[in-house]
Design brief:
Structural class: mainly beta
Order of helices and strands: HEEEEEEHEEEEEEEEEEEE
Strand content: over 45%
Mean pLDDT: 91
Low-confidence stretches: 1-20
Number of domains: 1
Subunit structure: Homotrimer.
Strand order of the largest sheet: 1-3-4-5-6-7-8-9-10-11-12-13-14-16-17-18
Number of strands: 18
Protein name: Porin
CATH class: Mainly Beta
CATH topology: Porin
CATH superfamily: Porin
InterPro entries: Gram-neg_bact_OMP, Gram_neg_porin_domain, Porin_dom_sf, Porin_Gram-ve, Porin_Neis
Subcellular location: Cell outer membrane
Membrane topology: Multi-pass membrane protein
Helix content: under 10%
Largest sheet: 16 strands, antiparallel, barrel
């Protein structure tokens, strides 16, 4: 009996040592609050809403040590709505991210699956809309540049280089998976970032050919694509600087869309021959105390479109202010206000202001205020 106990103890030690070389982590975030909007098409509204700041997720991520500084990695991430328990992306279990790959200290990371593109990875940390846990209300109009990760790239192969003295590159290719249509609904993306001390600089490019969205292409019809286009190109550059408790960010993005048609999740129900956006954002964060922080952003978006009904040059001014208080390392409460003014395209589908995550206004002005709570696990 004594020998059996010793044998079990020895086996337990070896099992623990083997298990220590790999790990699986369950994680998630819940964000919900009360939202007031002065104009959502038919009037004002007071609602309970989820994900006004951060996307609600739960997921699994893991790493296995393969030796020689090489790891097998994976991530499976689900998006959901706490108000009704439904998945964010219909017909999917892990609609936000799902990938597997290899990570080497000296060789970089290679992953395959449903993933972020370089615009999200490189420019997202500079924008208020995607900084840290994110701020969906602060997205550029219609998230036209995908900085707020409204859509992901399916069937994608992504390589991220090692960090070399602050310099890091990224390349992604998303296959169409269409027989006889290699270039139909494919996507590719490139990005470069430099981080050194208080300085962070980045540039990125994304192109997708997705005029006819499907569930099998690089861009899925389950995603929130406001302007499905025969070709979408996004390019941008920006930087941020940290000094003491404050940080300042500047970001420019340029989006070009050809031959757009309304999709299943489109807010705008008008087709365009060409549609262009230039987004100019300045943002600031300031930590008053370790628990209390302030943030704000101003974005000017300059648009241009041509359609069967004519052409115009719509414009949007948007101001976002936010205060956040941490109750613990995992839980915080917040209050935020956003104001948007749209003009220059009266009589078109762009007549009404549109703050991300809400319904379009019936006039050129829209105001939203929200208070909420977030918790992470």
């Amino acid at each position: 009996m004594k020998n059996d106990i010793i044998g079990v103890a020895v086996l337990s030690v070896f099992a623990t040592a083997a298990h220590a070389q790999s790990s699986v982590t369950l994680y998630g975030l819940i964000d919900t609050g009360i939202v007031y909007t002065n104009n959502q098409g038919s009037g004002s509204a007071v609602q309970m809403q989820s994900s006004m700041l951060s996307n609600e997720v739960w997921g699994l991520k893991g790493s296995e040590d393969l030796g020689a500084n090489l790891h097998a990695i994976f991530r499976l991430e689900n998006g959901f709505n706490i108000q009704n328990g439904r998945n964010t992306y219909s017909g999917t279990m892990f609609g936000r991210q799902a990938y597997v790959g290899l990570q080497g200290d000296s060789y970089g990371t290679l992953t395959l699956g449903r993933q972020y593109d370089a615009v999200v990875d490189m420019l997202g940390p500079i924008a208020l809309a995607n900084n840290g846990d994110g701020n969906n209300l602060a997205a550029h109009p219609f998230d036209n540049d995908n900085v707020d990760d409204s859509f992901y790239i399916n069937n994608s192969v992504k390589y991220v280089s090692p960090n070399f003295k602050g310099l890091q590159g990224e390349a992604l290719y998303g296959f169409s998976d269409a027989a006889g249509g290699f270039s139909n609904n494919r996507a590719y993306s490139l990005g470069l970032s430099y981080s050194n001390g208080p300085i962070n600089l980045a540039a990125a490019y994304l192109q997708s050919n997705s005029g006819s969205l499907s569930s099998t292409g690089a861009v899925s019809n389950n995603d929130f694509v406001n302007f499905p286009a025969s070709r979408q190109r996004v390019m941008g550059a920006g930087g941020s600087y940290n000094f003491g408790p404050a940080s300042v960010g500047l970001l420019w993005t340029h989006t070009l869309l050809d031959n757009t048609q309304p999709g299943a999740n489109s807010v705008i129900s008008q087709a365009f021959n060409t549609l262009h956006f230039n987004n100019y954002e300045a943002n600031v964060h300031y930590a008053l105390t370790p628990s209390l922080s302030l943030a704000g952003a101003y974005t000017f978006t300059q648009g241009a479109f041509s359609s069967a009904n004519g052409s115009a040059n719509p414009k949007w001014h948007q101001v976002t202010v936010m205060v956040d208080y941490s109750l613990s390392k995992r839980t915080d409460v917040y209050a935020e206000g956003v104001y948007q003014h749209a003009y220059g395209a009266e009589g078109s589908a762009f007549t009404g202001a549109y703050i991300n995550g809400l319904s379009q206004a019936s006039t050129g002005n829209q105001v939203v205020g929200t208070v909420g709570i977030r918790t992470r696990f």
